[in-house]
Amino acid sequence: MSNYEAQKIRLAFDGAPKAALLIIYTGGTLGMDYNDEGELSPLDFDHVLSKLPILKDLKLSLSVISFDPPIDSSNIKIDQWGDLARIIEHHYQDFHGFVILHGTDTMAYSASALSFMLHNLNKPVIFTGAQLPIASPRSDARENFIGALEIASDYKNGAPIVSEVCVFFNHLLIRGNRSKKVESNHFDAFESENYPTLAEAGISIDYNFNVLALHDPNARMTINTQMDDSIVVLKLFPGINKSTVGALLNSSVKGVILESYGSGNVPDEPWFLNQLSEAIENGVCILNVSQCSGGKVVQGKYQTSGRLDQIGVLSGRDITTEAAVAKLMYALANYQNKQEIKTFLSESFSGEMA
After folding, report:
1. What angle do CA 179, 151, 210 make, to 5 degrees?
2. 29 counts as catalytic
3. Same domain, yes or no: 78 and 20
4. Distance CA 253, CA 113 (A)
């Protein structure tokens, strides 16, 4: 049960509210301002509200839970992922949808993690944030926040249009575990190269109904917050040497995200393949993902990846590194049997891979 209690936001408008939403404010650039040293630091949610008098025009019943203190997303840990899941579980029956205000740097990781932690989700959970603080005259915070609220409150025939974990940013709604931050200097910060956009907000919000997740509205939403962080990301680069790889594949590591070239290619040098093979024999799970934003891993397409299947490296196909990190942490924490872990990683659990 969550230790966080929701505080109602008092907004004056005529008539009944369109929907009831819970805003979970973790921190991030959206709610930051410059301190006396000229550095951006998180502020409390009351500051954010003071910049959004337009909220009353949405005619929504809004409540908020704020992390205390607000945190920069660079400091997000597994514990905070669990907090988010428990908050949603605790308040699930009270709200039509959830909007999570989060820093952009690790938003794709957090959205991916929640997509595995929340089972049988049939309400919207929308992550959003900003590249500029809401106090900035040119901030993208207002459009991102208002758009996320509108999508989270959008129902059709009595059911939510969106019933999955998503990222809404710069007019685009993206599946959370397909999102990747690709830009730090422009407003189009996120992309989804391997899965279509779920919706685009212009004059109206145009949904791509063919690619939205479908869930049983009668299924009971449950959570599982168990994650094992005994993993590393091994990013290949020309000149990578034996001692570097050996240092990463040490005895405390249970899982490895292997960021390979192109469609899953790796050096075919014996020392490299032997180290991977030895690690797998010692119980380490290795998941192969591509360094490319688009495309997918096809082990065996080229000779340089042909040995990977033989030694037991798993193909992540078109999964992002961010989703692979969350999925591997989840698998290692919740499955003890090697075959169960392999099956879980090889199949799509919440739309994270083809």
Report:
1. 65
2. yes
3. yes
4. 20
| Cα-based distances in Å from 250 to 162, 315, 327 | 42, 22, 21
C-alpha–C-alpha distance, residues 129 and 73, integer Å: 10
Query: How confident is the model at residue 3, as a pLDDT?
Result: 61
Distance from CA of residue 154 to its chain's centroid? Answer: 21
Helix (H) or strand (E) holding 107: helix 107-117
- My answer on whether 28 and 88 are in the same domain is yes
Residues 279 and 161 in one domain: no
**Are the beta carbons of 33 and 65 closer than 8 angstroms?**
no
pLDDT, tens digit (0-9, with 9 covering 90-100), for 143-168: 999 999 999 999 998 899 999 999 99
In which element (H, E) is residue 87 found?
helix 78-90
Helix (H) or strand (E) holding 167: strand 165-169
Residues 26, 174 within the same domain: yes
Q: Rounded CA gap, 255 and 229, in Å?
A: 9
Cα gap 146→152, rounded to integer Å: 10
223, 257, 278: which is the final residue of a domain?
223
Q: Which of 26, 29, 104, 106 is catalytic?
A: 29
Instruction: Please give the model's pTM, rounded to 2 decimal places.
Output: 0.94
